[in-house]
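Q: I'm a student working through a structural biology exercise. My instructor gave each of us a protein and asked us to get a predicted structure, then write a short paragraph describing it. Mine is N5-carboxyaminoimidazole ribonucleotide synthase. I'm not confident about reading structure output yet, so if you can add a plain explanation after the tokens, that would really help. Here is the sequence I was given:
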Amino acid sequence: GSTIGIIGGGQLGRMLAMAAARLGFRTVILEPQADCPAAQTANRQIVAAYDDPAGLAELARVSDVITYEFENVPVSAADRLAETRPVLPPPAALEISQDRFNEKKFLNDSGIATAPWRVVDDLETLIAALGALGGRGVLKTRRLGYDGKGQVRLNSLDEDQARAALETIGHAPAILEGFIAFEREVSVIAARDSNGNVAFFDIAENVHKDGILSTSTIPANISDATALAARTAAEKLLHALDYVGVLGLEFFVLPDGTLLANEFAPRVHNSGHWTEAACAISQFEQHIRAVAGLPLGDTERHSDCVMENLIGNDVDSVPAILTERNAVLHLYGKAEARPGRKMGHVTRITPRQ
Ligand code: ATP
Ligand code: MG
Ligand code: MG
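A: Happy to help. First, here is the predicted structure for N5-carboxyaminoimidazole ribonucleotide synthase. I'll explain a few features afterward.
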């Protein structure tokens, strides 16, 4: 059988390795942290930094194809691997999604609407951007933000507030996005294979708490037209990126049903975890199929469901969850339940309405 290399050893790598094993593949992860969630499910771990030349050479040596489970893989590392092995999704997808400026521009250039945005480099450009966007917005670092980190909301042209916001994000290169009074948030988990075929899971409605995904509910409470618009945007993006694998695309839904794309992740996505419980084929298997050159699987949903993230002390409810009917529990094997840390998730399924 062949071996799939995975850069990154978090819970997404863990679940990718499980899905790969079910299809008869071996997996090798590259991850500097020895005691990581994926170490328990992959066949082998190369304990090295993501840009360590020896680690990368070893990963390339033992892998037939290489994928990744997080979007901050150094592009130089992905490019280096791509010299000798297929790296899927293509490294260009990493490069674009790592920088919110590139990402927003690529979305807009691909014909996908977003919140209005401006590049921010300093106080002067921030004040100008605030003026242009109606005195209200969300300042976001261009790089390395996740779970709402590296973001500050602004609601005035006040210079002191603007200065404090720049201080909060450490004066990192940033963008300012217009503040969107959305009605709800949704995401689409989409896949494309190497022949250009695409498939979509049903759209999830997502609720965030403290900037972190809390629940995904399927079906989403949106019209068929809005759902179609979300799939159409995702399809455009997949083709524009010449993408192979699973991708998550997040949207704001306005009160009139209009969609604004927020960001995309070139990987399996937390708002797609429900697929392991409510579909015959999960997003993880779909991703493995795509990167391994197998046909995409059926995305039909057999159940309605709500996926709940277990964050920090939420794991205290695990004993109760274990006694519930139709609750599909997934724990990531992390020892310490720190605040804000994703420890696991549970998907509660009910018959499809
Ligand atoms: P993730 O963990 O999803 O990668 P992130 O840190 O990259 O998160 P975003 O997805 O950009 O951040 O924003 C996190 C959340 O903050 C959004 O899901 C949304 O609830 C809110 N938010 C972000 N941008 C805006 C905006 N322009 N207007 C209103 N709310 C916003
Ligand atoms: Mg993000
Ligand atoms: Mg997000």
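A: Here are two points you could use in your paragraph. The radius of gyration is 20 Å. The domain at 116-178 is CATH 3.30.1490.20 (Dna Ligase; domain 1). It's a good idea to check both against the output above yourself.
Q: Great, thank you!
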